[in-house]
Queue: 2 jobs
Job 1
Amino acid sequence: MNTTQLSFLPYLEHQVASRPEGFIPVYEPVLDEVAERYVLDAVQSGWISSLGKYVGEFESLFAEFCDVKHAVSTSNGTTALHLILHAMGIGRGDEVIVPSLSFVASANAVHYTGAPPVFVDVDAETWTIDPVDVERTLSPRTRAVMPVHLYGHPADMDSINAIAATSDLFVVEDAAEAHGAAIDGRRTGALGTAGAFSFFANKVVTTGEGGMITTDDDNLAARMRMLRDHAMPPDKRYWHDEVGFNYRLTNLQAAVGVAQMARIDEFIARKRQIASLYDTLLADLP
Ligand SMILES: *Cc1c(COP(=O)(O)O)cnc(C)c1O
């Protein structure tokens, strides 16, 4: 346990003490004194909803981390996925291809749009979407494909992007578990049309609840920002041309996010250490 955890420590100690013998948690968030300081600053500033300075700062840090032009924060990873699909114009009459092995939110986000999630198999080795099965499942209604970088393992994006280019599909990365994962030095979130991340407590970095969308598409980013905020145009407030959503992240959550981004490389390095420990200790198993 990290000694820099201040008032969170008694709570975490209680959690560890009340755990069954041998219980291994999926993940334990590390919230340090910097996070406490930023949250306190946000509280004292009075900017607690979504207009405070930490929201923009968190988005800039995340865009830089993924090396994309735009990062759009959301209330969680599921709303991030839904906002992308909705902003792309996906709805009734369309189909979106998703892998059959994922957390349920991937398919739910598609279902919210009115388009059915169409399931395909995953690769036996990586547990990520099988491009051969994607190709077999394409129909005239297919508008998008959603590779999920499950457990931080990037899907075969070269193959998926090649299929998408041929068939004119959007590629929506579900990167909810894959902050910092990369293929040839290019990080997830920068490998499709847009990517969605989650900051739930058991993800690589957390804001309690929270999400982020990454994209290089200027129009899509502007449209998602507008739709996230009740479809309110920035230059014509309280004028709503379409139905929007409240999918905003709060300044309190973003304050935690900014503190987490300062340590994300360290968290990922630790995860890699643990992964190689499993590889070593399980090396004798078929
Ligand atoms: C966690 C997760 C989500 C949803 O994120 P929330 O922030 O919990 O809404 C979506 N897809 C995958 C693969 C996830 O692991």
Job 2
Amino acid sequence: MRQSHQLPLVGLLLFFLIPSQRCEICEVSKEKYFYLNPLLSTMIYSNYTYGTQAANVLLSLRLVGMRNQSLEQQMIQRVKDNLERKGPNLSSGQLALTILALGACRNPDESFDSHLADLLEKKFQAEIENMEAHNGNPLTNYYQLSLDVLALCLFNGNYSITEIVEYFTPENKNYYFGGQFSVDTGGMAVLALTCVRRSIINGQIKADKENSKPIDNYIETLVKKILFEKKENGLIGNIYSTGEAMQALFVSSNYYNENEWNCPQTQDTVLKEIPRGAFSMPTAAAQILPALMGKTYLDVNKDAPCVYDNFNISIHEPGPAPPTKLPSVITVHYSVQINETYSTDVTVLNGSVFLDVMEEAQKQNETIFGFTMEESSWGPYITSVQGLRANNNDRTYWELLSGGNPLSQGAGSYVVHDGENLEEESFCKIP
Ligand code: B12
Ligand SMILES: *[C@@H]1O[C@H](CO)[C@@H](O)[C@H](O)[C@H]1NC(C)=O
Ligand SMILES: *[C@@H]1O[C@H](CO)[C@@H](O)[C@H](O)[C@H]1NC(C)=O
Ligand SMILES: *[C@@H]1O[C@H](CO)[C@@H](O)[C@H](O)[C@H]1NC(C)=O
Ligand SMILES: *[C@@H]1O[C@H](CO)[C@@H](O)[C@H](O)[C@H]1NC(C)=O
Ligand SMILES: *[C@@H]1O[C@H](CO)[C@@H](O)[C@H](O)[C@H]1NC(C)=O
Ligand SMILES: *[C@@H]1O[C@H](CO)[C@@H](O)[C@H](O)[C@H]1NC(C)=O
Ligand SMILES: *[C@@H]1O[C@H](CO)[C@@H](O)[C@H](O)[C@H]1NC(C)=O
Ligand SMILES: *[C@@H]1O[C@H](CO)[C@@H](O)[C@H](O)[C@H]1NC(C)=O
């Protein structure tokens, strides 16, 4: 924790003079750095074959000030390769993440293509046009629209305050999936709106100062919704949204009371999940690390060179191996629900993941249990079952459940248990 270096008297004076500067950032202390080793090895020793993995990792490593030049060069190359390969086909949020990663504390000799910000403006406009044409549904989602605004705000892109005031009201349905507030989405929106608010206040963007008022209210409401999702053990939403939530709470400490959030408790719970392998996917590791080091995406600074003196530990072992399948077998109940429910019992090796179950069921009956998937930065994403495709414009997707509860991991990661009731449900996101 910070603040403790000042003389007690000075600290006391400061506290009484400027109470509004309360600093709610808690970062992992040096003695606990060893907890972070698995996160770093997961990030360093992975393949970065898919999507925005490399951008997520580069951004994360730069924010925490990881000292390893050769690794950084390698990551920059992968992000650039992905940009070249996907080019105009990147989604708006993927481009935003690419800009944040390449532009963060760039060294002066590195080039940075300023056309990327122009391209992002166009992609953000396309999101808004899609909302107007399709019942308020963006091309992607509000997590990505928030990333867009954040990147435009930090990299002097053009965006309209009026549009932001119009589309980012906390009541907007896009903050919700199936009636459930998405903490990741809310957290990213708080970061984006905080950046916009700061830009209005210090005159970086031409706007009536009055416009900061609704944005102020949005931040306040979103912070309330985020804190409402705080669990007894300190996690906010689930383990994978907690990093984004922490970042949002770091930058918005004027909007809640000190007793409303116990940051060290949240941090402790997250640290304990690391050795259990909760963050064995590079994207998951990259998203939690900045918050643990007391950093936020608002710390991305396009004008200053990278600072490396922050974080200096060396990594030896590769990340935790994926769960090994044991020779014993287990039986699970699997069903696909569309209008009707189609069920079967499937036998798989102990240690299998949801996807293995789906593949077994598909072997039983291709017509009923046939499915398609796409690789993404979080692993395989299920795009269709029984020929029925998920569709963003209709806000439909395939939801994974166990015992009726939505899973917090994907088909490629969730390890199934003997006797479990697994379900795949065609789901409409409209609450
Ligand atoms: C938006 C979103 C969705 C949307 C995606 C479609 C859309 N309209 O955009 C919907 C609601 C459909 C969705 C579904 C699911 N999601 Co989701 N989702 C997100 C969210 C909030 C933002 C993703 C994003 O746009 N990222 C930014 C862009 C730039 O990165 P991207 O990699 O290109 O994004 C794509 C992928 O992330 C993919 N995607 C989204 N969710 C998931 C989940 C998995 C497992 C995979 C493989 C891919 C995937 O869709 C994105 C758009 O194309 C993230 C939050 C986060 N922290 O990342 C959660 C998140 C990625 N989702 C998660 C989960 C668990 C799921 C589900 C498995 C939930 C369930 N029980 O069914 C399902 C996926 C089931 C399936 N069909 O395979 C977890 C993943 C955790 C983990 N360790 O695997 C996250 C981190 C949320 C959380 N805190 O739990 N999701
Ligand atoms: C990396 O990629 C290679 C080939 O594409 C694959 O064989 C290997 O299993 C991958 N490693 C990891 C950790 O994903
Ligand atoms: C730096 O990164 C490289 C991979 O690019 C890795 O082989 C090396 O072990 C890393 N060095 C340290 C000190 O972690
Ligand atoms: C972009 O997507 C279109 C349509 O899906 C595809 O035809 C095209 O080859 C893609 N271009 C690149 C560079 O991936
Ligand atoms: C920036 O936005 C303003 C107002 O929306 C618009 O008038 C101007 O043309 C935009 N500039 C660029 C370069 O897009
Ligand atoms: C960083 O770690 C390396 C190797 O452990 C060490 O040689 C170096 O002095 C450290 N630098 C700082 C600033 O702590
Ligand atoms: C499910 O039912 C709805 C209305 O009851 C119908 O419109 C739709 O076509 C059905 N879908 C399938 C896949 O049978
Ligand atoms: C499956 O493996 C776990 C350990 O990984 C063990 O605790 C459990 O009893 C096994 N179940 C069966 C049915 O073999
Ligand atoms: C798959 O299920 C359908 C519907 O129950 C049935 O008509 C078909 O014969 C089954 N196919 C196989 C190969 O069992």
